[in-house]
Write a structure and sequence with these properties.
Keywords: cAMP, Hydrolase. Belongs to the cyclic nucleotide phosphodiesterase class-II family. This is 3',5'-cyclic-nucleotide phosphodiesterase. The chain is α/β, with parallel strands linked by helices. It has a single domain (34-323), classed as 4-Layer Sandwich (Metallo-beta-lactamase, Chain A), CATH 3.60.15.10. It contains ten helices and 14 strands. It has helices at residues 4-30, 72-80, 88-95, 110-115, 128-138, 212-215, 219-232, 260-274, 276-279, 293-306, and strands at residues 34-40, 52-57, 63-68, 96-100, 122-126, 159-163, 170-171, 178-186, 189-198, 201-206, 236-242, 283-287, 312-314, 322-323. The strands form two sheets. A seven-stranded mixed sheet has the order 6-5-4-3-2-1-14. α7 (219-232) crosses α8 (260-274). The chain is globular and about 55 Å long. Mean pLDDT is 93; it is low at 22-29. Bound molecules: adenosine-3',5'-cyclic-monophosphate. The site of adenosine-3',5'-cyclic-monophosphate has 5 residues, from loops.
């Protein structure tokens, strides 16, 4: 015969676990899901520090690289800072499993082109329009060598173009990550936002973009609709977004970029979808600040003043890891 005391203990235990579950999941939400290693953080003229961010699931060395403006110099800095225990050349070849190019402006792709001779085989992901520009303007025999698998013959086939289509989630080869893309308006170009998922955690990286009102677009609004539920559920660990110019830059010479004012206009629209409580404390990594130094310090001051939503504003540093 079964011991009724033992049965009672069993049920008490099950009820206790049930009651404690929410606390376990909160603890899980607070632990880090991603590691970001910035290889280049600025927009503009410093060719040793242009947009490129390595991203992996926490504890994994299977990184992707979001944009690829500067690679070698940033990798060397990261190695000097002991972020990696391998030499820079090996990190490039062995840890970076694919490139995600938001748009084909030089400051987002120069590092990839220049480092191609010493790189290993991997995919280049992007919208079809971005891949076409790389194919017809950079990996050609007139401007460099064709290291890719399409375009001018002979194709050296080191890189494989992999077109991403908005609306689909794509598994990223040789990683446990998945990605969705959103089109962004960047003056005459379509730029891209990458929403990267590791299990149930997300990070959103935006390439260059202007505000909907300036760009006469609904791209931001459409993207906010898609990510607002992830902000509410605390699954979105960070947004990496550009602010290129201080507020003094006239709207007519923004060239498809954001200022502190226009960033907050867009984040207010996200807050309208999530509620202000849900967005408070959200990690916002500010990218693509354009020199000179005086403009960069203006941007930082203006963002601090404009931060009514109480976001956690983060300024990435080249070669220093961030955890989210
Ligand atoms: N019409 C223009 N006149 C002058 N400069 C421009 C114009 N359009 C783009 N640019 C510059 O070209 C740069 C290309 O990269 P960015 O978009 O970061 O920033 C852009 C501006 O600095």
């Amino acid at each position: 015969m079964k011991n009724p005391v033992k049965i009672q203990h069993k049920y008490t235990f099950i009820i206790l676990i049930g009651l404690l579950m929410p606390f376990f999941s909160v603890a899980q939400n607070k632990s880090n899901s991603f590691r970001v290693v910035p290889l280049g953080v600025l927009g503009g003229i410093d060719e040793s520090n242009l947009s490129a961010y390595m991203l992996a699931a926490k504890g994994s060395n299977n990184y992707i690289c979001l944009d690829a403006g500067t690679l070698h110099y940033g990798l060397q800095k990261a190695v000097d800072n002991k972020v990696f225990s391998l030499p820079a050349e090996k990190v490039l070849k062995q840890y970076i499993k694919g490139y995600f190019i938001s748009h084909a402006h030089l400051d987002h792709i120069a590092g990839l082109i220049i480092n191609a001779p010493d790189d290993s085989t991997k995919n280049i992901y992007g919208l079809q329009s971005t891949l076409e520009t790389i194919k017809t303007h950079y990996f050609t025999w007139a401007s460099w060598a064709n290291f890719a698998n399409q375009g001018e013959a002979p194709a050296l086939k080191k890189y494989h173009y992999t077109a991403l289509v908005p609306g689909n989630e794509t598994a990223i080869e040789n990683t446990d990550l998945k990605v969705q893309v959103f089109p962004l308006s960047h003056s005459n170009l379509t730029s891209t936002a990458f929403l990267v998922r590791s299990n149930n955690a997300y990070i959103l990286y935006l390439g260059d973009t202007g505000a909907d009102e300036i760009e006469k677009s609904s791209n931001f609004q459409n993207m906010w609709q898609a990510v607002a539920p992830l902000v509410k559920s605390k699954q979105l660990k960070a947004i990496m977004i550009e602010v290129s110019f201080p507020d003094e830059q006239p709207d007519k010479t923004l060239f498809g970029h954001l200022t502190p004012h226009w960033l907050m206009v867009e984040l207010d629209k996200l807050a309208a979808l999530t509620g202000v409580d849900a967005i408070k404390g959200l990690n916002v990594v500010v990218t693509h600040l354009k020199p000179p130094a005086v403009s960069i310090s203006k941007i930082k001051t203006q963002l601090k003043v404009a931060n009514k939503l109480q976001l956690n504003l983060i300024y990435p540093q080249q070669g220093k890891a961030l955890n989210f």
